[in-house]
Amino acid sequence: MTSEAVESKQPQDIEIAVIGNAFCLLIASAGLLAGSMAANLSLAYWREDVAVLAITAVMGIRLLRNLMDVMTQYLETPQVLHHHRAETKERVNVQSEGVVMAQIPAVSSFSEDQVIEEVVKRIETQKAEAVKKNRFTN
User: Fold this and answer.
1) Residue 71: inside a domain, yes or no?
2) In a domain, 137, yes or no
3) Total domains present in the chain
4) What residue numbers bound the domain in which 69 lies?
5) Model pLDDT for residues 40-67, shown as the tens digit of each residue
6) Bigger pLDDT: 138 or 26?
7) Cα 107 to Cα 104: distance, rounded to the nearest angstrom
């Protein structure tokens, strides 16, 4: 009956607990650094930092327990073996095909007259669009 009541933790829950406890231990350690013992560089002031010391100790113990749970969960899960191609004795023949080296396409050159004609066309279309927009706004 007692064995039925004990539930195994899910891997996601364990990971969240480890991250949470590590973060809490980090905050508690920051409290120790800001405390009287670190400021005065002496263990004689431990009574002033009792709460922070207790929190640090509890969080450290909880973090270690959760890390042990993670390791046991990892050992209990079945390991999947991945077969690599290098382990097989197959050999693949790679043959070069008739590939032509990549070439940059030739730049098309335009005559001066063609360039001037295209510029004139663009200017005329821009003027026509401007007149249409003015007609609608006025």
Assistant:
1) yes
2) no
3) 1
4) 2-76
5) 888 888 888 898 899 999 999 999 999 9
6) 26
7) 9
In this structure, is residue 91 part of a structural domain? Answer: no
Q: Please report how the helices 11-34 and 50-76 are oriented relative to each other, as an axis angle in degrees rounded to 10.
A: 160
- Give a yes or no: residue 41 inside a domain: yes
Average pLDDT of the segment spanning 22-41:
88
Contact by Cβ (8 Å): 49, 35? yes
pTM, whole model, 2 decimals?
0.48
Both tokens of residue 27?
A: 């905050």
Residues in the chain: 138
What is the 3 state secondary structure string of 24-62? HHHHHHHHHHHCHHHHHCCHHHCCCCHHHHHHHHHHHHH
What are the pLDDT digits (tens) for 115-132? 999 999 999 999 999 988
* Contact status, residue 49 vs residue 32, Cβ threshold 8 Å: yes
- 29 closest CA partner among 9, 50, 56: 56
Instruction: For the chain, report the end-to-end CA distance as a whole number of angstroms.
Output: 88
